[in-house]
Amino acid sequence: MNISQQANDEQMTMQGIVSFYDVRKGFGFIRGDDGQRVFVHKSELPFWTIYLQKGDKVIYRVSESKRGPVAMSLAVQES
Question: pLDDT (tens digit, 9 = 90+) per residue, 25-48?
Answer without folding.
Answer: 999 999 999 999 999 999 999 888
